[in-house]
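Quick one: structure tokens for this chain, please?
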Amino acid sequence: MLKIIGMILQLGISVGLIIAVLMQMTQKSQLGGAFGSGASYTVFGASKKLDTLGKITLALAIAFMISSIFTAYLIVA
């Protein structure tokens, strides 16, 4: 039962992370982002602080890593 809960949690976090990353990509880049010019925001940074969506993405990425380790442990054990 705990394996199923872990996998459902992993799935929910991964879908949330995908949505958050895609929302950030559409905010930062327009048509030029399709050709790689959106990467200019990552070199020097357009802003020094993370906005709300950036903080959500960071939290989801950390939660994804922790839940991946937890789910792997559940599957092996």
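The chain has a mean pLDDT of 81.
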